[in-house]
Amino acid sequence: MAAVNGELALTVLMGLLLVGVAAWLARVENWRSYTPLGSGGVYGGETGQAHHEKPSGLTRWLTTVDHKDIGIMYGLYGVIAFLIGGAMVMVMRAELLDPGATLISNTFYNSLLTSHGITMLFLFGTPIIAAFSNYFIPLLIGADDMAFPRINAIAFWLLPPGALLIWAGFFPIPNLIPAQTAWTMYTPLSAGVGGGNQANAGVDLMLLGLHLTGVSATMGSINFIATIITERAEEVTWANLDIFSWTILTQSGLILFAFPLLGSALLMLVLDRNFGTTFFVNDAGGAILWQHLFWFFGHPEVYILVLPPMGIVSLLIPRFSGRRLFGFKFVVYSTLAIGVLSFGVWAHHMFATGIDPRLRASFMAVSMAIAIPSAVKTFNWMTTMWNGKLRLTTPMLFCIGFVQNFIIGGITGVFLASIPVDLVLHDTYYVVGHFHFIVMGAIAFAGFAAMYYWFPLVSGRMYQRTLGKAHFWLWIVGSNITFFAMVLLGYGGMPRRYATYLPQFATLHQIASLGAFLMVIGGLIWLYNFVVSYFEGPVVTDGDPWNLKEYNLYTGEWEWFDRKLKTTITDGGDEEVATDGGLHGPVGAETADATDSDDSGRAMDANDE
Amino acid sequence: MANKIFDKETLLDLTVNFVPLFIILFFVGVFAVLNPWGGLGDFLSIVAQGLLIIPFIALAILTYISGKAIAGDEKTKTVFPPGQATVPGTPPLTHDEDDGETAELEGDSTAEHADEPAAVESGEPAVVESDETAEEDGETAQIEATESTDGDGDRSA
């Protein structure tokens, strides 16, 4: 009784303390002044947030709350993470050229495998989408900025420490090793129990870093929901909201429900590891509890990553097909349907855990149902292109590559959703091939399509067309070689996550590595192209470099770009800028030589395919 | 009002969500009738049915809300091509079902329906069906003019 009274007293005391803290904070700071609406903004009108004069140099980037600057920082962050994650997998693919452990140790392979997955999903996938959405959503919907610009900045700045924590085990810090739990962090391995080395603090740092990125994504999602719902221009209604904004709105809803769950589960795991709690101990099925919690987040995460790329592809394919998206509302409704159903399929990742067959059957049924809205989209994309005036520019090629890879990745996924097939193929390379067709073949392809498409808008210059196409062809060939080889390895029974394998799998592994090396060459070409073009590419002098006006497909962000070009004031630098939006107006001297081989100005040769 | 929003065209748009709803409902029925693992009514069977019924209800609600929001705005406000509403000079869409056609906005057809703005003002969508032939593949297009063609004037440049 005394103990209960003591607890009660402590609870009351804690409550009083919290009320006191809240009251004190309210006194010392006028928090309402931090929100646009609180500073005199009105619904749908001026937000009170304006970017008057930006400081120069590093200070600008450290202090900016401009959605475009933050978008660029997200993009740079995502690209750096992509290069690091890519380097990690290339070491793994080099190791897999040979059946034995010849290049790196098994434990280092496991570390790379874990970090590659987490880096690509959380440090590249989500941020690169945030890059496009931050930069372009306000422009597309006619908003001044994001609804909460400071929260937007905070959300980004949580990411770099998150990455450092996730990669901490690789740094030369004594007694710290990288996590080797795979990105799924299954208990009991990730709980650090048993005779392995996963009780190391490197795993704790990785979990905390992952938590930071989750907090960042959640803050961003709240911002996007508020922005799209409340900051739209008057004429942007639900009936004509662009498809990219729809997918970001849906994605943000998914993040809002999924990521807090991941955060909670991660903290429970950290508590299990360090403070003796028993959430995930084996005895009462706790290890399976982790899988349920993880996949309740993890499957929506798949759609968090794929819906915005679908939006990008739905936005871009019509621009280069000379017609509006076929069945626009089908795509919108199916996006929303995917959003809801994605929370009802999580246990299809757990068919092999001994789960009750009745539950398993239900998850299979919903998994089959969710395939419909995804398939509908592919038909929409194909029918949009059907009989259209196709212009096979680099962004369009990447979009077509997306559709192709998404179909293969999607169909292989439908087979995995079938219980009998899954029980055979579970934990084999078939699964690896399936989801790489989606995450690399589709999501990354759409990301690069968007990078090429909006490169002129962000940089004010045009990339080199030939190099862009070389990049595409190396990637479409490379990705299909690699991921088909993985699917075949899975049919052969090759288990995932192994540094070594039986000699009979050597040929297919070598083929997979060959495709990966092709992709590396493509990636290096892309990097060279973008860096060189950023500094020396032909200056874009027209707000319509893709010739969209001709097809009445000119969207809001290019209108903004055009306005920017027309109102830019020459500051005395040596570079001329267009002031009249002319076609091939005052292009710098370096442009003249480059126009033979480059996309420049009005994507002049986009029709020559 | 609801039946005005959920007219034939809107329901047709929503069929994309009716299909997964039907698939889920089908399995609810199959598992109830065939009952392959026995024990209908025990806890796990109820959970299994709940795993189907809860997504079904959630999707049905979302389909209703989104259909109401999109079709409602479509019928009461000026509809521009998606993503192009903020571009000055973009003519509003005059066809409710313009899918698959070229993106060229026919100025003529805009003018054709210019005499029906009053119906929209009073909240009644002006529905004009015609046998106008689609440009490329000769399909017959059903055209609904759902908004006033003078809506352009409402937009701030």
From TrEMBL, chain B:
What domain of life does the UniProt record list for this protein's source? Archaea
One Pfam family cited in the UniProt record for this chain: DUF6684
TM regions (residue ranges): 12-34, 46-65
Presence of keyword Iron-sulfur: no
Q: Which InterPro entries match?
A: DUF6684
Q: Where is this region: Disordered?
A: 76-157
Protein name per the record: DUF6684 family protein
Species assigned in the record: Halobium salinum
Acidic residues bias (residue ranges)? 96-109, 129-139
Q: Which UniProt keywords apply?
A: Membrane, Transmembrane, Transmembrane helix
Does the record carry Transferase as a key word? no
